[in-house]
């Protein structure tokens, strides 16, 4: 325990991640802080926010955290917090250049803007155009940072944002630093895709798993950090799969329009008005491409799951405003076994990361739904 008895005061602010928070508190209480932690879990569930809060906890183990230091941590001021993330390559850039030396004015402005968003809202998804990799030059720059001595600082925190974006060369370059960093440094590798990390990287880290957050937590974060109206947050939360980032994108992209398109595609497919159903689907994909297809596909699967809930006298989880439509479906097709169509649609959903022929996939969805109408 600290002399202030305050362990957890910052971690307790994290929404919907009790297990991860408890794990971190145990590390603090033991005072056996690993040199490297691996925060894993989907995007938009609070991993980065947790890293920032953990930085505050570490620096308040032996003394009360000053307002000034708290602000510096929130603003990722070096040497207290260093955030390493993917960057675009500048014109004629080589691995010997500093990470941002060859970026043009627009790229630097975008970088400043995105980091500004992240400082204001730690649930923001940091995305830079054409930024695919954490550069090896960023890792070399990091090694210089590690070589400096800051005796007046309790802990320096290095956050590798979406660490799986490190190239193989970058991962190999950071291995030594992960294994033997200075005593005052803690690495936090933050990733939504740990399978892309080398086993030698993962073996040097203590993993802390973050899970999708519950619907009420999604609502709370959307309202508190994104200024979303509570009614909109409540509507989107069932479709978020526990990710605030997914929820916010659905709102920004037009959630209610997606829902209307989903119902229309179901209605016209069941009526075997295939061309009309195809037109509704095409309207979505012409604007949103593959992503629009998979959003609608996900909604259709969720609609059928609500149909099954209704058959068991359970309230719909997703389409709570479509209870009458669901009941009418069951009155007409209540004996139809939906397990096969749900399985086929979920298989299509598993192709998300592959190259697909949109027209063939759209037709497949429509005809499978239409088969219910024939039955």
| Percentage of β-strand residues | 5-15%
Write down the overall mean pLDDT.
Answer: 93
Report on the biggest sheet.
Answer: 5 strands, parallel
List how many beta strands DSSP finds.
5
| Computed Rg | 24 Å
Q: Estimate the global geometry from the Cα principal axes.
A: elongated
Structural class: alpha/beta
Which regions contain 5 or more consecutive residues with pLDDT less than 50?
1-5
Count the DSSP helices.
15
Helix content: 40-55%
The largest sheet has its strands arranged as 2-3-4-1-5
In N-to-C order, the SSE pattern is HEHHEHHEHEHEHHHHHHHH
Distance between the termini: 66 Å
What does this protein look like?
This protein has 375 residues and is α/β, with parallel strands linked by helices. 53% of the residues lie in helices and 7% in strands. The protein has 15 helices and 5 strands. The chain has helices spanning 18-30, 47-58, 67-74, 105-120, 136-147, 168-179, 199-202, 215-226, 230-236, 244-253, 255-270, 274-311, 323-333, 339-349, 358-374; strands at residues 36-40, 81-84, 156-161, 185-191, 206-209. The protein has a 5-stranded parallel β-sheet, with helices on both faces. Helix 6 links the parallel strand 3 and strand 4. The longest helix has 38 residues, at 274-311. The radius of gyration is 24 Å and the shape is elongated. The N and C termini lie far apart (66 Å).
Write out key terms for the chains shown.
single chain, 375 residues, alpha/beta, 5-stranded parallel β-sheet, 7% strand, elongated, disordered N terminus
């Amino acid at each position: 325990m600290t002399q202030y008895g305050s362990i957890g005061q910052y971690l307790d602010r994290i929404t919907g991640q009790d297990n991860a928070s408890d794990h971190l508190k145990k590390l603090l209480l033991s005072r056996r802080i690993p040199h490297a932690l691996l925060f894993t879990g989907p995007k938009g569930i609070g991993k980065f926010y947790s890293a920032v809060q953990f930085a505050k906890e570490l620096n308040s183990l032996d003394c009360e955290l000053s307002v000034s230091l708290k602000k510096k941590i929130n603003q990722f001021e070096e040497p207290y917090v260093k955030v390493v993330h993917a960057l675009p390559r500048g014109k004629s850039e080589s691995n010997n250049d500093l990470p941002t030396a060859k970026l043009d004015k627009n790229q630097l402005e975008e970088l400043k803007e995105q980091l500004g968003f992240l400082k204001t809202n730690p649930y923001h998804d940091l995305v830079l155009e054409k930024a695919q990799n954490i550069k090896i030059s960023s890792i070399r720059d990091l090694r210089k940072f590690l070589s400096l001595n800051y005796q007046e600082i309790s802990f320096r925190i290095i956050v590798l944002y979406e660490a799986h974006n490190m190239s193989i060369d970058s991962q190999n370059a950071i291995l030594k630093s992960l294994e033997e960093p200075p005593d005052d440094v803690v690495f936090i590798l933050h990733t939504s895709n740990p399978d892309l990390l080398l086993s030698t990287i993962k073996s040097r880290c203590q993993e802390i798993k973050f899970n999708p957050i519950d619907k009420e937590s999604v609502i709370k974060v959307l309202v508190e950090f994104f200024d979303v109206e509570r009614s909109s947050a409540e509507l989107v939360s069932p479709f978020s799969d526990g990710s605030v980032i997914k929820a916010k994108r659905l709102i920004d992209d037009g959630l209610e329009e997606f829902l209307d398109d989903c119902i229309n595609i179901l209605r016209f497919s069941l009526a075997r008005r295939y061309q009309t159903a195809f037109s509704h689907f095409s309207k979505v994909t012409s604007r949103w491409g593959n992503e629009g297809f998979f959003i609608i596909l996900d909604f259709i699967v969720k609609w059928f799951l609500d149909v099954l809930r209704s058959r068991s006298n359970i309230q719909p989880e997703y389409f709570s405003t479509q209870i009458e439509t669901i009941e009418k479906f069951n009155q007409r097709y209540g004996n139809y076994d939906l397990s096969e169509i749900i399985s086929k649609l979920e298989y299509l959903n598993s192709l998300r990361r592959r190259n697909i022929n949109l027209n063939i996939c759209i037709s497949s969805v429509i005809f499978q739904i239409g088969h219910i109408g024939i039955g």
